[in-house]
Amino acid sequence: MTPNRRDPEAASRSGTRTIHDLPAGLSMLPWELPRVFLGIDGASATHGEAGTWILPVPYEATASWGTNTRRGPRAIIDASRYVELYDHELDRDPSGEGVYTFPALELERGAAGRAMAEMERAFGLVLDAAAGRRVIMLGGEHSVSAPAILAHAARCDERLAVLQLDAHLDLRDTFDGSPYSHACAMGRVIDRVDLVSVGVRGIGAEEWKVVQERDHVVAFTGEAIAEDDAWIDEAVAALGDPVYLTFDVDFFDPALVPSTGTPEPGGGNWRQTTKFLRRVFAERRVVGVDVVEHAPIAGLAAPDFLVAKLVYKIIGYWSEGIR
User: Fold this and answer.
1) Euclidean distance between CA atoms 316 and 161, whole angstroms
2) Nearest to 134 by CA among 164, 161, 95
3) I need a surface site. Which of 106, 143, 251, 274 has the fewest CB within 10 A?
4) pLDDT-based confidence at 66, cuts 50/70/90?
């Protein structure tokens, strides 16, 4: 299989390169695809023209079992160059609105608290510069979601609703001695946002107590979503507006995505996931998205591709659902 970006007749695949600043007269030589999401080039891949901005944040500091989430953003971006740009479900090419990919954001590697403060400040600056464009962050471990959510919450007039697709609630106050662990990501934001968690099945007793005691926290377990699709109506109804989507890839059944640090048996499948996400983007005002915790496995490309296609589906649904 070759990247479809080689087609010289395809939109945004010819003309002057904008990703790399090449010497005069050399832009039309057959250079490798740019290492950006979907491999697209041209004006639609510039920050000024693109409707979607991709922000890679390969941060990993608090992994509690498997590691390698720091390599997740690059693996997703590399695999994305093989995703077909025409989406038959939507009957269009969502990349036509343009996708810009930032260089990776390198956070401080010392104290996690300082890294999270650096992340919140940086993400806020990105949001301000985006001026309403769609921003999708690619992690890295789930800890980076908390400062991104807080940056969004600070910019919303209404109370922000967070939709968390995840095998875990991540509601611990501390884990392994740190309040900034990936296992505490939602614990860092729970006082500022409403939370709807879907697919959870690795749950600590203290986390479940939070769900039971707080009216603004709703959870749909892995068992609940396995029965039928009735949960989709309930989960959409539980969501407020606006919505921030945080998607930990261990939400999926590990048979689909084994490439994550803390896999849990059971989990979502592709069909129900895309069906649910399309409903969310159609019926709620989504203001931000992250996809985190992909830990690529050498020699196993299928999960990289699945996560890349998930991100592209999100771009398609989001651009379709803008109100």
Assistant:
1) 21
2) 95
3) 106
4) low
- 8: phi then psi, degrees, rounded to nearest 5: -70, -15
Task: Please state at what angle helix 230-238 crosses helix 270-283, rounded to 10 degrees.
Answer: 40
Strand 286-292 with 134-139, pairing: parallel
Write down the pTM of the prediction: 0.92
Average pLDDT, the chain: 90
Burial of 276: CB neighbours in 10 Å, binned 0-12, 13-18, 19+: buried
Structure-token pair, residue 249: 């890839």
Q: What is the pLDDT of residue 55?
A: 96
Residue 37 zone, left/alpha/beta (φ > 0; ψ -120 to 50; rest): beta
Say how far apart CA 209 and CA 153 lie, in whole Å: 24
How many Å apart are CA 208 and CA 172, to the nearest integer? 10
| 4-43 residue pLDDT tens | 554 444 444 444 556 667 788 887 777 777 789 999 888 8
Q: Supply the pLDDT for residue 23.
A: 85
Question: What does the pLDDT look like over 116-133, one tens digit per residue?
Answer: 999 999 999 999 999 999
* Three-state secondary structure string covering the chain: CCCHHHCCCCCCCCCCCCCCCCCCCCCCCCCCCCCCHHHCCCHHHCCCCCCEEEEEECCCCCCCCCCCHHHHHHHHHHHHCCCCCCECCCCECHHHHCEEECCCCCCCCCCHHHHHHHHHHHHHHHHHHHCCCEEEEEECCHHHHHHHHHHHHHCCCCCCEEEEECCECCCCCCECCECCCHHHCCCCCCCCCEEEEEEECECCHHHHHHHHHCCCEEEEEHHHHHHCCHHHHHHHHHCCCCEEEEEEHHHECCCCCCCCCCCCCCCECHHHHHHHHHHHHHHCCEEEEEEECCCCECCECHHHHHHHHHHHHHHHHHHHHCC
